[in-house]
């Protein structure tokens, strides 16, 4: 069902681009990580970053986070949410998509918005390692789309998860590719494509490349997500085209089939998506609660409390984690981002 989120942007800070960029400027959460490489069935691996200190009890609840496009455990948004879960006594960990951690990945496949197999494998490994621990997954942006698609694919008992939280997921990938090619949103598109091109160049330098055209020339022409996904993402991952990829990887078409308790947080003014996004999609199942704020930008949701700018997302996610566990409630100010 659709509900109004209780987020209210501070006066003068409601612009969607201001909200989108503010988390990058706020103090970073103080957090240490321990790195683990988890081997995958196809010979590649994913990198896990575990927040420290970790709970000692094996039944401590687990918060597994999936980051967004070209993000990592160093992203301020990721650190804030992991720090929130860690302070609540959860075992907090982020799974890096292939090639997004510190160690270059081995295989020829890339990650994408619909690649659910790696997440499924990691969740199954956590289920084996911590069979009696309650587990919740959080997906940010692209990671949120992937998580919702995974939940739709696996049904109510296909995952060892008590719940899922998706933050600003691009549920209609084609519509998001269009939105990111309009106005100031092109800045986000250009920045993410620059990172993707650098990563592709490093990958090609370590692998045989039989393409007769100089790859540098090809990469420079790919100046939109439509072009990039048509020429790179689709052929590297078994899709016929960008259109085929967007159709098959978008999680929006799975919303009515999700049987896992799920919370989706969305801003109507998200510059990565068209307005009234949910009118384009199937009605969510009874297990899915969608909270829509008038403002908030893309994974922004910065509010003012006690005279300070704070992450409403950390507050709302903390509330949801408490509702799915028996962890004692935090005091009213405990969700503030710690200063380094």
Automatic annotation (TrEMBL):
Annotated protein name in UniProt: Hydrolase
Stored PANTHER family: ABHYDROLASE DOMAIN-CONTAINING PROTEIN, ESTERASE YHET-RELATED
Top-level taxonomy: Bacteria, Pseudomonadati, Pseudomonadota, Gammaproteobacteria, Oceanospirillales
One Pfam family per UniProt: Abhydrolase_1
Active site as annotated: 141 (charge relay system), 270 (charge relay system), 298 (charge relay system)
Residue stretches spanning the membrane: none
Record organism: Kushneria phosphatilytica
MF annotations from Gene Ontology: monoacylglycerol lipase activity; short-chain carboxylesterase activity
SUPFAM superfamilies per record: alpha/beta-Hydrolases (SSF53474)
Record-stated family: Belongs to the AB hydrolase superfamily. AB hydrolase 4 family.
């Amino acid at each position: 069902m659709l509900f109004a989120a209780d987020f209210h942007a501070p006066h003068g800070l409601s612009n969607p681009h201001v909200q989108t960029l503010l988390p990058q400027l706020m103090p970073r959460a103080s957090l240490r990580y321990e790195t683990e490489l988890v081997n995958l069935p196809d010979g590649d691996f994913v990198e896990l970053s575990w927040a420290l200190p970790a709970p000692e009890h094996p039944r401590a609840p687990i918060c597994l986070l999936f980051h967004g496009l070209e993000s990592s455990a160093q992203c301020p948004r990721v650190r804030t949410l992991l720090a929130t879960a860690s302070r609540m006594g959860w075992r907090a960990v982020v799974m890096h998509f292939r090639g997004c951690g510190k160690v270059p990945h081995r295989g020829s496949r890339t990650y994408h918005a619909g690649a659910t197999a790696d997440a499924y494998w990691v969740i199954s490994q956590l289920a084996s390692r911590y069979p009696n621990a309650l587990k919740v997954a959080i997906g940010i942006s692209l990671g949120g789309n992937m998580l919702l698609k995974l939940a739709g694919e696996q049904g109510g008992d296909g995952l060892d998860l008590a719940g899922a939280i998706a933050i600003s997921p691009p549920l209609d990938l084609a519509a998001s590719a269009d939105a990111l090619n309009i106005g100031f949103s092109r800045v986000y598109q250009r920045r993410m494509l620059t990172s993707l091109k650098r990563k592709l160049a490093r990958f090609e330098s370590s692998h045989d490349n039989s393409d007769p055209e100089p790859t540098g020339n090809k990469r420079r022409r790919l100046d939109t997500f439509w072009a990039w996904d048509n020429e790179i993402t689709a052929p590297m991952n078994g899709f016929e085209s960008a259109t085929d990829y967007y159709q098959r990887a978008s999680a929006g078409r799975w919303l009515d089939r999700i049987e896992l308790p799920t919370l989706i947080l969305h801003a109507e003014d998200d510059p990565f998506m068209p307005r009234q996004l949910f009118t384009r999609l199937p009605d969510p199942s009874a297990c899915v609660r969608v909270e829509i704020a008038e403002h908030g930008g893309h994974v922004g949701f910065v509010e003012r409390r006690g005279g300070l700018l704070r992450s409403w997302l950390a507050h709302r996610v903390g509330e949801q984690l408490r509702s799915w566990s028996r962890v004692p409630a935090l005091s009213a100010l405990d969700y503030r981002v710690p200063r380094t």
